[in-house]
Predict the structure of Retrovirus-related Pol polyprotein.
Amino acid sequence: MEEEAKPIRKQQRRMNLTILDVVKKEVTKLLAAWIIYPILDSQWVIPVQVVPKKSRMTVMKNQHDELVPMQIQNSWRVCIDCRRLNQATRKDHFPFPFIDQVLEKLVGKSHYCFLDGFSGYMQIHIAPEDYPTRVVSAVHTLRPSKPNKEGPNCIDHISYPARRPPQRQLSCHVTPRKSAMS
């Protein structure tokens, strides 16, 4: 962090019920995989953003019976806006290795595997001391489908830092004739 950086705590915007359901499902999925976990308080809080996923194109008729290309939107992506956090973070001069450095490490190796089986956007490890700066605020309301004797089960606000799941033992087998590097 930069020395003069002040913690950023932004309030979550209102969401309609459809978007709230999308956020609830994503938060539940990430909690179950231990990519995130609940906390009580943090100085750094980032609100959740929900955007439409890029979707396939199709051709449809418009009001003048002309065929026009249209995008069909049928799914959502839950994101966080880290621009202000990035401004407060000290920049690394060489954040990623050059491709020739990566290839040098592969010389003489018979197998190479790079796999993140959960989701494609969780590729960067976060140091444990940096967890408090990656806190996301989400309005997450759980309601039972039918009322029970104990009353409704509600979590009005949940905050959680993003973190990597525990390392898992994976066994990989590569078939060279079916593999390609482009």
